[in-house]
Amino acid sequence: MPKMKTKKSAAKRYSLTGTGKVKYKKMNLRHILTKRSPKRKMNLRHAGILSEDQTKKIRKQMLPYG
């Protein structure tokens, strides 16, 4: 049986933590930042963690060897 291929678009968007959780970069921090409050921008800098059901889907379908 051939190897499963990693979805490269998913590999660029998500990364795995040491405990197996899936990290991603939050949206809305690219341009037109003047209308966003400093508190909102500060919170958007931190990585987000996917929920358990989404984590299972991403790891099984898109990042099989992750």
H-E order: HEEHEH
- For the largest beta sheet, what order do the strands appear in spatially? 1-2-3
Termini separation: 19 Å
**Residue share in helices?**
25-40%
Strand content: 5-15%
Tertiary shape: elongated
The radius of gyration computed from the alpha-carbon positions, rounded to a whole number of angstroms, is 15 Å
Mean pLDDT: 95
| Helical run tally | 3
Report on the biggest sheet. Answer: 3 strands, antiparallel
Query: What is the tally of beta strands?
Result: 3
Structural class: alpha+beta
Provide the low-confidence segments as ranges.
none
Architecture overview:
It is a single chain. The two termini are 19 Å apart. The mean pLDDT is 95. 38% of the residues lie in helices and 12% in strands. It has a three-stranded antiparallel sheet with strand order 1-2-3. A hairpin with a 5-residue loop joins strand 1 (14-16) and strand 2 (22-24). The protein is α+β, with helices and mostly antiparallel strands and 66 residues long. It has helices at residues 8-13, 38-45, 52-62, and strands spanning 14-16, 22-24, 48-49. The protein is elongated, with a radius of gyration of 15 Å.
